[in-house]
Amino acid sequence: MSIGKAVQKGTLIYIYDHNGKQITSVSAPGRWPEDGLKSFTANTVSIQKGSLIYHYDESGRCVGRPHPAQAPLHAVKQIKREQCAA
Questions:
Q1: Quick check: 79 pLDDT over 90?
Q2: Sign of the alpha-carbon dihedral angle for 68, 70, 72, 78
Q3: Could you tell me the maximum CA-CA distance found in the chain, to the nearest angstrom?
Q4: SS3 assignment, position 70
């Protein structure tokens, strides 16, 4: 079975097959505005949680290792402020 669609509603990501039937859901707690669904393919769903992006298969199982997300805008602004203050 492959992923047909992934939709975020609140802090949950719902994964559907190509017939529109829900396969599973994955939690994506939203501590930062950047957290949540990033993308999906027929094989995986990519979800950002904090500073990491996790990949899940059609069964909702985490696959592979998470990788770092791009630094969130609010963190970049904070770093720039600290550098300017020196």
A1: no
A2: positive
A3: 58
A4: coil
DSSP string covering 34-64: T-EEEEE-SS-EEEEETTEEEEE-TTS-B-S
- Closest C-alpha among 19, 18, 36 to residue 27: 36
| Separation between Cα atoms, residue 77 and residue 63, nearest integer Å | 32
Question: How much is the pTM?
Answer: 0.76
Among 14, 52, 57, which residue's Cα sits nearest to residue 31?
52
CA distance 57 to 44: 5
CA 28 – CA 38 distance, rounded (Å): 11
C-beta separation of 46 from 54 below 8 A:
yes
Q: What digits encode the pLDDT tens for the residues 33-54?
A: 889 999 999 999 999 998 899 9
Collapsed DSSP state (helix, strand, coil) of residue 26: strand
